Amino acid sequence: MTTADQALPVRPLWPAAKDVFFISIERMLPRPRSFWVFALLALPVFFGVLLRIYPPKDLPLTGFELDGIVVALFFIRNLLPLVALLFGSALISDAVDSKTLTYFLTRPISRLSIFLGEFMAYLVTVLTLTVPCVVLTYLVLCVGTPQGTGFGATDLVQDLGACALTLFTYGGVFALLGVSLKRPLIPGLLFLFVWEGFVANFPGDAPNYTLTAYARSLIRHRPSEEGLAELFSKFFPVGESVLVLGIVGVVSLALAIWIFSRREYVISS
Amino acid sequence: MNRSRRLILTAAAISVLGVGLAFSTRLTGTARAAVGPVPPEALALPADSSVVMGFDVKALTGSQFYAKFGGEGEPGRVDALAEIERKTGLNPERDIDSVVIAIRAAAAAAASEPKATGPRHHGPENALIFVTGRFDAARLESSLPEAGKAQKERRDGVTIYREASGKSNGAVALLDAGILVAGDAASVETFLANRSTGHGIRDSQALVAQLESIEPGSTFWAVGGPSVLSRVTSEVGGPAGNLPAVKQVVAYGHLDPEVGMTATAQAADAKSATKIADVLRGFSAMLSLQSGQRAELAQIADSISVATEDEKVHVKATITHELIESLKKSAMAAHARKAEVEIH
Amino acid sequence: MTARVVFKKASRWYGPVMALNDVSFELGPGVYGLLGPNGAGKSSLLKLASGQLRPSQGTVELLGRPAFGSPDVFHSVGLCSDTDALFEDFTGLQFVSALLSLNGFDEVQARKLATEAIETVDLKDAMHRKVGGYSKGMRQRIKLAQSLAHRPEVLFLDEPLTGMDPQNRKRISDLMKRLGDDGRTVLVSTHILHELEQVTRRVLLIHNGRVLAEGDLGEIRDLLDRHPRSVRIKAADTRGLARELVSLPDLVSLNLEDATGHLLAEIRKPDAFFSKVQELSAACGVEEMWVTDENLESVFSYLVSK
Amino acid sequence: MSSSQIYEQHYRRLDASIPLRAQRWIPIAREGLKALVGFRAFLGLIAIGWLPVFGRLVQVYFTTRFPEARRVVPVDDKLFFDFMAMQLPWMLLMSAYAGAGLIANDMRTGGLLLYLSRPLTLVDYILGKFSILFASLSMVTLIPGVVLFLGARSLAPDVLGDAAHLLLLPKIIGFSLVMILPTIGLVLVMSALARNPRFAGLGFFFVFVGTTVAQGIAWQATRSPYAGLASIQACMRRVGEWIFQVKPTRMTAALPAEWALLVLVLLALGCFYVLKTRVRAVEVVK
């Protein structure tokens, strides 16, 4: 055996992050939990197929509008934040729980690259699960309708962008929660269903302080909401929404990295 | 990462194929169904329209012409656009793709709407405006009741707002987030009825022929039938008032690299056509005569060419951006001189 | 030769609990045993040495750099931790290769080095199987493989022989010896004394977070030999056996347990005692024999109480 | 040395002939609850869950001082129904907190085998875990509901004091059971399916939220009240409306309460079946 050169520096950020990514994606994506999440995300596809096979007599909405509701209400408002909570909060804590973080921490790579690699794996995982469901939902609801499949093609692409941004931002927020708290689940759920759920529909400027109000502003083809939500829903220009979501995501990630870089992980048998 | 790679590739393949299918259908679907510059969704506009005109707002806002002349001298324009966006979520520059306006002559409108009572006005009530773009539907809807105290009705996937003030009977129908139709309530209803029955512009072969003759890619265009045009020529007065009746006009144009417009008017016969051409040539000659005072006028006169072909009159005009710029400058100078004189 | 691992008055608390108390030592090339009972602070010491924990007081240096927060040193450091954690869905080869890729080796190099390391721990036949299906001993060996695959200068091994069969214990012990002879620094923690004896004579004895003794195993062994150990023997002729054994010079006490019929002996030099029992086993029908307090804990309590 | 006996190398079920003691689930429940009460967050969640009780009592007190206010906020069955229905989200959070790790932790740490190596049956184990959750969830639904009723009755005896209003008590208990039982079933199933409590808790929420959103979409698309059958929450609410005889919400107005109840019963039974199958799979077999 030859002796390794001890003067070697820490590996550069991105190549190291890429190697962490390749390991993490394999440990994140092909797992039973991903399958179940995919099954849930694919519910609208199943529902759409049913609707097309057994169409109600007086369908009050066009397929394209229904797609808008599904994207806004099912994906952006409810399921994607939950997916982000599931995978995002587990970014580091999963490795701590499974006691495999030691393998990363005892390699010549910076903690920043570990975190970035894990986060990239998170993004690729959640997008792999989400994007086909959004696309298939659109196709199932719009193919062969009077408006035609191509009618909302640009909206479909925008919806995909909105979903990706939602996953990025909530992922960042929940990654922060995951590295800060030992039990991020209940605070995460409180944030999603108490803060995001109620405050987003308050009158006045209250919705400015929720992420969901910005995320829903990105879905431009949804019909108006009903009840209180219709009265108080606040919508922001697309540019502002993208900016706010992007900034919140990046700042959360930066904080999460800062905490992760300084924290000790006592992993013992 | 063999297993994850397979999953990622499968997901990517599904997504790319799906999006590709949507876009390819959009392209091929439009090409197959559109009539001239009228998008397929607008074909439910009434066949008895006297004038149908349209603007490709996307091409307009993306043009060099718009970049040069679109916002200058109007400091409030940006604020106004921002205000519209704040209230309705709609940024006309960004969100509107195209506008098609169909104007129905009073007689035609009255004939097709026997229930309509009371005096009818020429103007917006008889104009049906069809807009395509991307509308933030929920926000647009939430802004409408505030502004006009409208009554909202949802029917067959379409949201219809009617003015409830009683002063007018305007209506706006939001077909979905991509299409908005506005006009008088009866016309909007006709449009919606046509949409479900398949009637519309295609019912009029003449109108379809006129629309098909428009050069593809035109930024703005208009086709007109006899009734409106005859009224225009009689009401305008002056030299135009003596013009022979024009049966129909097809006009279209573009903005880049120079502003170009082509119009073809169809007169009753060759004699009338010649008369119209003569009037236009005379107008051009008058501009040339004034070139001593303003050199740009000569250039304008040069840019206009008039020709006849049996009962048709072809008019072509090409004005460079530089010429428009100099016209604008001299107009501003004249305005400044006028202001100076008033001060003194 | 400069020291590769240096502890200077290093202490570590977990909240109010003191895991390591004012520890100072230096390690150069060679194999070192870290010996102590469960809960002595062996794992904490290894975690401090391998930069996973920050010392609450004092300093810990690894290859001339602070151990905590210097990821660059891990080009030359390997760790086989005591936790039974692996990437369960990876095959043995994938597991080791993936971790090698984190060290900056390309795919081909990583595969080559991983295969070599796996061969070294005798797991070649199982390297294409998922590690989730490995036995305890195999899991231990694949962990060992990942720690030495990148050929580190300093190797920390926390209870490396746990769960291994005698054959593999021997193999891994030989390997550790070879690594030490090769000029590497190997720090092996264990609570079983005879495991260490096969590998090294240099020992750090740790108890209650303190280094009790540091030096040659022989000296420590002598110390231990002076500590009486209890041996329980089950035999057909217990009384006859007792008669024969009572004359041994290093016997401290001998009792016949009425309830079980077992013979309980307290001895100072176990080796001589065991040979004698071996001789008598046929004659006296010795069925079973076991040392009741071989666990170092009793040894340490003896040492500490002195 | 004599030769050692060679045993068959497999696990064996306890073949003890000692009779099993009755109420064997009680120690499991007791220890589980003790552990939960040790968490401040758990007590905090319960405390917050009780805040609406005081809010409602203040409301009732207010109506006793200003009887005309009863026209706006009447003290009737609807008050109690609304109170119970509003406890539902809190109950879900409590379920995720208290229930997610109940079986998952035992599965992960091997504790399940430890339990089953005692003189306990599978049903005892499940019953023990069930009891922990039943007690926890009752603390934010059943008990506050009963306390509210008793408090309101003492504050406004003129309205609630008559014998007829005593029926509210079984209504509160009934609606509490409708909310609690399927929820316990679901959270225990999730806990048994996922080894990580975090995933169990989130899986539980996924199902609850997912089915509710699915109902919303299905309703928008079809305007059919039967869309409510897709949502666990909507079914619970519909049965509650029926129990309290209050005006149903628009989306489920025409949904027969029996159907909703049937869905909940099937859910609870299905959960118990899955639970038993899943835990049995871990149990050592003879």
Report the principal-axis shape of chain D: globular
SS-based class of chain D? mainly alpha
Number of helices of chain C: 10
Biggest protein-protein contact in the assembly: A-B, 49 and 42 residues
Over all CA atoms, what is the radius of gyration of chain D?
Answer: 23 Å
Poorly predicted runs of chain D are 1-7
Give a verbal description of the structure.
The complex is a heterotetramer of chains A (269), B (344), C (306) and D (286). Chain A is an all-alpha fold. Chain A is built from 12 helices and no strands. Chain A has one domain (13-262). Chain A is globular. Chain B has a domain at 36-202. Chain B has a 12-stranded antiparallel beta sheet with strand order 4-5-6-7-3-2-1-8-9-10-12-11, sandwiched between helices. In chain B, β5 (158-163) and β6 form a beta hairpin. Helices cover 49% and strands 25% of the residues of chain B. Chain B is globular. Chain C has 306 residues and is α/β, with parallel strands linked by helices. Chain C contains 10 helices and 14 strands. The longest helix of chain C is centred in the middle third of the chain and has 16 residues, at 166-181. Chain D is mainly alpha-helical and 286 residues long. Helix content of chain D is 71%, strand content 0%. Chain D is built from 11 helices and no strands. Chains A and B meet through α1, α4, α7 and α8 of A and α1 and α7 of B.
